[in-house]
Amino acid sequence: MAITFESEPNNYNPSGNPITYVFSSDQTGQANFSFKVETILNGSAVSEDRVFVEVSNRAHFDCSPVVINLLQKPRLTTDLETNMDTIYTLQLRVTELYGDPVSEEATLTSATQYTIAASLPNDDWKLFTFNYLNNKWLTDVPSNTFKVIEGQDVIAAILTNASQSFTINFYDSSGGVLDTYISPATFYRLRQLNLSSSNLTAVYGGVSFDDVASFDVQVGGSEVLTFIYIEQECYDVHSLVWLNKYGTFDQYPIEHNVTEKTSIESRSFKKKYGSWAGDNYLYDFNNAGDTDFEKTMTDSGRLVTNYMNDITQNWFVNAYESPQAYLYDTNGLQYRLRITGSSYTKKKGRFDDLIMEEVEYSKSMTRRSVKL
Fold first, then answer.
1. Range(s) of the domain holding residue 61
2. ω into residue 121 within 30 of 0, thus cis?
3. Checking CA distances to 363, which of 1, 101, 205, 232 falls within 20 to 30 Å?
4. Residue 210 contacts by C-beta under 8 Å, 6 or more apart in sequence?
């Protein structure tokens, strides 16, 4: 009586992609043979399935449909660094079932892997692996550089196999180092950084935060992620933030080209007012007619990006595929958006480098008038 895991998933697995185990037994010739398969998430069994032999003495089980709805959903965090709870330990426990009557025999539990609230496109999933020996920023931003707006949130996340500190270097407009911050060595597994200027002010030792033109962040031996502040002369800058395929957030500043419109829906009734004056009935035209007793306003708009090259555009259009998007206005207020564009085009291999994207959106919340 022996069970063998013939193959197991990667160490880190996006929950929205197949997470497949292949296992076998040397008792498949027994009467009424099958496998009992238990999915163990964060140390607790969350499902029990029956699997039958498929090829030779082997069978397989994909546990992604089990775990995908049990993970915590990605969220924007407010602290400078947060240990994300969107990563879970994952195991599969397989038990032989056979005999007449059927009874449980040998049992084997897989090694411990991890699953993350993420979902990669098919091509990326085939070529990509979360088995990092070094640190990985969970973004595909071109050139590892973000343009950001001072005062608004900058979200980044990283995956690491060891506890490590992160470093923030602050630079002036000439590229000179103003200050350096080194965090305590508590960075482990999956962390998210909120690098808003309100958080950075607490760790920046300079006299005036207005002197900062850019800053970069590095965790252990990871790639350097650079954030460049848009110059203060640029006004009316909004920032589009969206949940990316890795289960963390990307952002892109929309400079100047933001339009908003509002559709209004009225609830009303008709009524005639008047009174008798002798033999004549006089209408009160000031109060008669259609009366609105409530109005509902739904806000929508259009974002037009600056000119961008092919690489940046093909990264930016991932915002259309995201189920969760936000818009930060010039006051730093955050609004949940629904991007309403029905399609997009990836512009690869063009001779003209510069491209603009037009993004249509509606706000998830509506406004209502005073009800009469």
1. 3-75+87-118
2. no
3. 232
4. none
- How many Cα atoms are found within 13 Å in the side-chain-facing hemisphere of 165? 8
* Cβ pair 29, 134 in contact under 8 A: no
pLDDT digits (tens, 9 = 90+) for 154-182: 888 988 878 888 999 999 888 899 999 99
The DSSP bridge partners found for residue 181 are: 168
pLDDT at residue 67 is higher than 90: yes
Looking at the structure, tell me whether residues 143 and 93 fall in a common domain.
no
What's the pLDDT at 142? 87
Task: Find residue 193's DSSP bridge partners.
Answer: 81, 156
The domain boundary residue, chosen from 213, 232, 251: 232
State whether residue 124 is helix, strand or coil.
Answer: helix
- Burial label for 54, CB within 10 Å (0-12, 13-18, 19+), is exposed
Greatest distance between any 2 Cα atoms in the chain: 107
With respect to residue 136, please indicate whether it lies within any of the assigned structural domains: yes
- Number of structural domains in the chain: 3
Is the domain of 226 the same as that of 245?
A: no
Q: What is the pTM of this model?
A: 0.82
Query: What is the C-alpha R_g of the chain?
Result: 29
In this structure, the number of other CB atoms found within 10 A of the CB of residue 85 comes to 14
Report the alpha-carbon distance of residue 20 to residue 116 in Å, rounded: 15
Distance of CA 46 to the CA centre of its chain: 25
Token code pair at residue 36: 């009992």
